[in-house]
Amino acid sequence: AAAAAAAAVGGAAQGGSLEEAPKEAAPPPAPTPTEPPPPPPPKVEAPNEAAPPPAPTPTEPPPPPEASEQPKQEKTPRDGHPTKEEERRPLVGFVSDPGMELHSAGEQHPEQPARHAVITQKMESIIGDRCVRIPSRVATDAEVLVAHSRAYCEEVKSAEKHRSRSYHARLERTWQYDVFVNVATPRAALLSLGCSVEAAGRVARGDLAHALACVRPPGHHACKARAMGFCFFNNAAVVAKMAVNGEGPFAAAAKKMDRVLIVDWDVHHGNGTQALTYDDPRILYFSVHRGLESRKRCGSAKFYPGTGTPSEVGTGKGRGFNANVAWSEPGMGDAEYYHCWDRLVAPLAQAFKPQLIVVSAGFDAARGDPLGECDV
Question: Rounded to whole angstroms, how far apart are CA atoms 132 and 145?
Fold first, then answer.
């Protein structure tokens, strides 16, 4: 409008500056009075009428408010308080139970209560209210029987009924001395499994995006009818089987699951998990661990438990759904594990497209572990 007004005024000045008729003094004045009315009012008011075009300008302001409204949604507090969008997102769950620390063979044993206590205390000191606390619980018989025989289940639970050390020692001999048993062992093992199932079930239902079950005793060496390698019930195998079968808490899953990935990064091969899922194409088991070793380093040709070679790929319909990376020497560290994830784990996961990922998160590949001798 200002530009239009300036153009109109400039045109009027040029049109009124005709100096050829100075001699005809009388005639020029007549046009002069007549000239003022037309040029200034109409042509200057026409630009004023152009002021209505600002009507579009008032109509244009609505867009700016909209633009200003969008940043308002982004200007939510970032001082630790979640945005409205974040409040609607699923959260991370955490579950543990001090009852699992009563299963003990003393402070000198590598699988000791402090492993659970230290991790739990550290988590409690840093998570605050940023995680959803999942109530702990013991596993039901039906959950145990998903992967274990009834006779074996009763055998484990008998350690609570028969409280004598001689009876517990007999159980240890039955399981070839690579487990320890006391009166608290059955409940601790049932808590370990129950917490794992509860955490995974909440993820499957969509209540949570992720969950951490800080549990012991561990589970990945446990076989269908035998305790082994400090393990009694196979948490990962039970969770995976229940998920693909839609059992227990997985019956209410957001959608039916037919692809579960188990990633086992414990420094020992999860022989029990592999055996319990070996013929199931719905469960992809991947393990990275120490495998064939020099006799000079560990006194035998193989690292415990002596399974998990790359040639073990599954059987029947499950052939091709079992993958092992067996380090040929100790000392593997971050670079080797990154390479393994980049070249094997990620491509396998992308091809398999799992609906649920279960991690057997053993920490004994960490730098300083006396048994693992790795450098992660």
Answer: 29
Amino acid symbol at 195: C
First CA to last CA distance, the chain: 71
Residue by residue, pLDDT tens for the chain (376 residues) are: 333 333 333 333 333 333 333 444 444 444 444 444 555 544 444 444 444 555 544 445 555 444 444 444 444 444 556 566 556 656 899 999 999 999 998 888 888 898 899 999 888 888 877 889 999 999 999 999 999 999 999 999 999 999 999 999 999 999 987 899 999 999 999 999 999 999 999 999 999 999 999 999 999 999 999 999 999 999 999 999 999 999 999 998 878 899 999 999 999 999 999 999 999 999 999 999 999 763 445 555 678 999 999 999 999 999 999 999 999 989 999 999 999 999 999 999 999 999 999 999 999 999 999 889 999 9
Rg (CA), the chain: 38
Helical H runs in 205-327? Answer: 235-245, 271-277, 295-298
DSSP 28-96: TTTHHHHSSSSIIIIIHHHHHHHSSTTTHHHHSSSHHHHHHHHHHHH----SSPPPHHHHHS-EEEEE-
Asked if 130 and 240 touch (Cβ cutoff 8 Å), the reply is no
The DSSP annotation for 113-152 comes to HHHHHHHHHHHHHHHTTSSEEPPP-PPPHHHHTTTS-HHH
Closest CA to 250 of 287, 201, 212: 201
Kindly report the pTM of this predicted structure.
Answer: 0.75
Coil, strand or helix: which one is 188? helix
Active-site residues: which are they?
221
